[in-house]
Each structure stands twice: as structure tokens, then as C-alpha cells.
Amino acid sequence: MSESSSEYQTLALKHGASEVLGPLHTDFGVTGTIYKATAGFGVHVVFDTVGTQRTVDSALLCLRTGGTLVNMVAWKTNVMMNMNFLFKEITITGMFSSFLNRIEFTTDE
Questions:
Q1: What CATH architecture applies to the domain 6-102?
Q2: Where are the domains of the chain?
Q3: Who's near 107: CB < 8 A, 6+ residues apart?
Q4: Could you say which of 17, 61, 62, 77 has the lowest number of CB atoms within 10 Å?
Q5: pTM for this prediction
């Protein structure tokens, strides 16, 4: 997971994230770390909560074959996408991010 908020980083680890990266890593650093952690396969799902060209580019690089990119933001501008990523048989879908405010996390505490 790539997240800037220390609160969300802690929450992600508590709920099963195996690794949390800050988004200030270079694209190669995040992608390289993800490929190392997944034995070169990439991740199953990327949730883009930022909505910039850079985050879409990074997300597409990090996805494994058959992975899913979930867009969670409204865009002010169009984004460019290398259509060759579709050969990875990925799914691109969307979810409005205010939905996260309605999710209740359960804990064993």
C-alpha cells in the first residue's frame, strides 16, 4: 500500500497490509519494491485515491496480469493511458471515495 497519512498506514498494517510505502518514493522505488515483494508478479488491486497522471502510470506498472485498477476520485482533466497495458488483461473500474466514510472497520479489540 502507498499512503501518506501515518494514521492510514497504521490502519492498513493492522488490517493485513504486508507493506506500506509512502507516495514520496520515486516511481521506480515503489514499483521496484512491489515487484520484489510479489516475486515479480505485481499486485492484484490498486486503489487510486489521488488522481494524477503519475499515479495512474504507477498503478498500471504495479498491476499484475489480470489485476484491477480502482479509480476513486473525480478527475478535473483527462488522463492518458498506454493502451498496451490492456494486454495484461487488467480491469479498470471506479468507486466514489466518499464511500470510504461509510465503511466500518471491525477489530478484535
A1: 3-Layer(aba) Sandwich (3.40)
A2: 6-102
A3: 14
A4: 77
A5: 0.71
